[in-house]
Amino acid sequence: MHKNSSNEELQPYLNKKTVLVCKKDQDFILEGTPVVGLYFVYQGKAKIAKTGLMGKEQIIRFAKPGEIVGHRGFGYSQEYQISAKALERTVLCSFSTEVITKALLTVPSLTYDLLTFYSEELNRSETKVKKFAQMTVREKVIDALLYINRKFGQSKGLLNLQLTRKEIADFAGTTEEQVIRVLSSLKKEKLLNTEGKKIGIERVELLSKEIADHNYFIDS
DNA sequence: TCATTAACTGTCG
DNA sequence: CGACAGTTAATGA
Question: What are the residue boundaries of the structural domains of chain A, listed by start?
């Protein structure tokens, strides 16, 4: 998506963007709130989640710079089906639904990009269903860690995304305690490093091997 | 110093 | 495996 910033065809639309700066932990989309437009992450990181009954939260995915947020908001739905929160200081560009609609109708490359994005998203959520149904807690936690590694990478041996164990649990579909237990046993097996809140993956290949049976799509 | 938060452990259904 | 209770360590008002 970001690569389109250079496209001249898009310039008239880019001028209509609104820049929004979020502080850490700030929500910029609330579930059930009227749709106002579409967001792109320019800087920072965000988490996209759905809150179920009983305050249980399911983290759908994380977004990094260049990614789109709130895409399910336009079209027919009147309200956002998800909520999004900045994980750190995050800069967002937002476009109104009208602007996006016009842009999509006139710039094919943008439409194509969005289509690709949707298709990947659908793939992800389909394999996620399978994962949640078939994987053990240990595998789900490993899977979550590998996802974070793929998306954000590591620097000096630690994951570039700092999450609480609770957030990892909400993403993996378990509870905080289970995550802690898996984490500490992985640490004992020397597959993992842990420094307080920070986590480092020592042997990515070994972890991938454990969930290989479930990885139909490498990038899910 | 006290209070809060997060990481962690033990145990039970 | 999930839920609850309880301990410990770090942090900050």
Answer: 2-125, 135-214
